Known about the structure:
Blueprint: H1 7-12, E1 20-22, E2 25-27, E3 58-62, E4 65-71, H2 77-81, E5 89-95, E6 102-109, E7 126-131, E8 138-147, E9 155-162, E10 170-171, E11 195-200, E12 206-212, E13 218-221, E14 240-241, E15 250-252, E16 260-270, E17 276-286, E18 291-297, E19 306-312, E20 324-328, E21 331-338, E22 350-355, E23 378-382, E24 389-391, E25 408-412, E26 423-427, E27 437-442, E28 448-452, E29 459-463, H3 469-474, E30 477-481, E31 490-494, E32 501-505, E33 508-512, E34 523-527
Parallel strand pairs: 14-15
Antiparallel strand pairs: 1-2, 3-4, 4-5, 5-6, 7-8, 8-9, 9-10, 11-12, 12-13, 13-15, 16-17, 17-18, 18-19, 20-21, 21-22, 23-34, 24-25, 25-29, 26-27, 27-30, 28-29, 30-31, 32-33
Amino acid sequence: MKKGKLAVLAAALGASLALTSCGSAEVTEKTIEKSEYSNPIVQFREDDGTIIYGGDPSVLVDGDTVYLYTGHDMSSDKQVEEKTYNIPEYFCYSTKDLKTWKQEGVVMNMKDVAWTRDNTAAWAAQVMKHKDPESGTDKYYLYYCSWDKKAAGKQSIGVAVADSPTGPFVDIGEPLVRGFVTKPQTSNWNDIDPTAWIETDEDGVEHRYLAWGNGLFYICELNPDMISVTDQNGDGKITCTVSGYSDGDIVNRTMGLNAYTEAPWIYRHSDGNGGYTGPYYLFYATGWREGMGYSTTDDLITGDWKDGGCFMQPNATSNTNHEAVFDFQGHTYFIYHDGAQPGGNGYRRSACIREITFNEDGTVVPMEETAAGLFGTKSTIALKDGSALSHEGFTNSSDDKDYPYTDVIVGTGLSDAPQDGQWVITAGHSDSSIESQVSIQSENKAGLYLTVSSDGDAVHLAQDTDAKPETAAAQTFITKTGLNGDKEGTSFESVSRPGFYLTVVDSMLTVSDKPAAKDATFYITTVE
């Protein structure tokens, strides 16, 4: 929400900066530590401070710089209700430290692509760097998908070329792979979500792989020009097969990918010397709502798939997910998207980051979504007797009807899992410029905030689905010195209900205008 936009509302609701009194203790506003860096990676426009959405993230590491690419999610409330994506363009962001991200702007707009059916379908993309065989200079190739007006209403795979990773990317004028080429066809959107991989084998032969697919998984190799499919069997045409290159050029490799849904991403461990080692990993979205899964193989074209299972459950705020996995400065990172921003959902998504780790046998260590990200501050919030706030423990549902989450119970003694009692304290949603205002987000249920009920004293975890001022106020609290007289303690006054403080009553979190001081004074500890 635009900074400063709700200052008038905060004043009208009684968020006074004056001293207040509670019993015999003098209570003053105070400032507590907030998480400066947290997920999503990019939350606001640099030019005007408004919320920015963008899903289907991908990453290119080029030297000392990481480039992040997303679509620009712009679906209106009506389009969200109709389950319609409105994604007119691709954005790029860059960083050298994974902490501060530069907004590079639009790198391609769909209105500039001649073969697409409309200008609102900038679906998932990935950028690759490769030396142009004719000029000998480095070029950048944006592989993407969109609705094809000449492919019987199907999605097709496109490619655009640029001289810089920040664009502008110029489409080659026609799809790289039209939707009717791949076989079999089970939907009009089988041909989406391209991913690419380039490496040189032990014989010195360079392979330029391109893969994609929803429901079905296709893979082929590209010519050195990076904008055409290799005619493997030399028959003068590009065809699809399930039996390898001897019978075609694009291989349907779905057999064995039993949990595969969409959003493939090829990855392989670096050997530290500019090459790769071990099996190929194919990461992908699995099931519905979409979790994150993977399979491995020793050969992308002919090898059997080994199912690695689901290592990340569906997130709490978006029905889809899309990943990127990359190495940078000796670590491996995992990019995904969620709907954790105010007004966010599966059609207004945001890119997030966390580290991904592997066991000694190469399997992926299971993980959760994270509000803190790589550099955010995680905290515990407890009463003086040590009773810590947590939310009830639960696994995010796979059933659409259970969303959005609006009434997750919060209190003390609700969960033994440490992550259920970790919180990310950020600037207040109502007005981030007021230092004494905060919002409190669950660390492992990103996008779910402590929210004061509009029709009672209950406080639940809830998603901000509408980005309205009233919702922002319900998720914002004024931090004050402890009502028990201890300045080391913190009490939280509701912005939406002035004079009411977060209070633990019968182990449940509520708000009260007449709280017992000991039940409304909290102690915040940073989680290392």
